[in-house]
Amino acid sequence: MSDLQLVNDRLNALIGNLSPSSRKEMARNIAKKLRASQQQNIKRQQAPDGTPLKPRKAQPIRSKKGRVKREMFAKLRTARYMKAQATSNEAVIEFVGQVQRMVRVHQNGLRDRPSRGSKDVQYNARPLLGLSEKDEMMIFNTILLALG
């Protein structure tokens, strides 16, 4: 058994000793911090591992002049679409509503139709949600603080 597995087992035992309300509070803190981290990644236009997202395809030359497009996924990072939820057993960051489908297409690089009458388009994979080493350390530190 590796040292990491021993530490993980020990932490699980200590977390199990906490009351359900304190576990839920700890999970809520983790979820809020993770959502903030994911929002910053989207704002910086980078994947959770730190690599930049692939830019949009160039628009046709005949597009409107002087039109400034917003950065990709600007609205998705708002609290309206990106929710943080917690129970005594888990912390969850998810997209809600109709944007889940669009996020799934971009997260995994799937094919989709941009509008009803258009042809299928293959999208580049642009991971929006994920854990980095920095996020894992933040989770670990939050657990240690909750344990006292």
From TrEMBL:
Pfam families: Phage_tail_S. Residues 34-66 are annotated as: Disordered. Residues 54-66 have a biased composition (Basic residues). InterPro entries: Phage_virion_morphogenesis (IPR006522). This is Phage virion morphogenesis protein.
